[in-house]
Amino acid sequence: MKQAIGILETKGLTALISGTDAMLKAADVQVAGPVKNVGSAMVSVTVEGNVAAVKAAIESGVEAAQAVGEVLSAHVIARPSEGVAAVLPKPAKAAPARRTSK
Questions:
Q1: Where do transmembrane segments lie in this chain (predicted)?
Q2: Domains observed in the chain
Q3: For 54, which of 6, 42, 85, 88 could close a Cys bridge (C-beta 3.0–4.6 Å)?
Q4: Could you tell me which residues come within 8 angstroms of residue 75 by beta carbon, excluding any fewer than 6 positions away?
């Protein structure tokens, strides 16, 4: 597990995508897994990286998401317990390449 995780939760997908884009451009962080649909239009994304990068990413993500929608929650956990990995979203497996006939 990385040194820190950051969670951004918004109401609506547009705000979350805008926030995620800003987070990935602002700092050296990686998305921990696919976007999670919490229900009632609430969606969240989790990023991982070192503590300073995650803090910077969350700050940028909140600002960008607020510009187009509603931020419900944003949080950084520095040095999370190893048990936290069990509840984090898992990265999506790559789909097999499609063969095209010629």
A1: none
A2: 4-84 (3.30.70.1710)
A3: 6
A4: 6, 7, 58
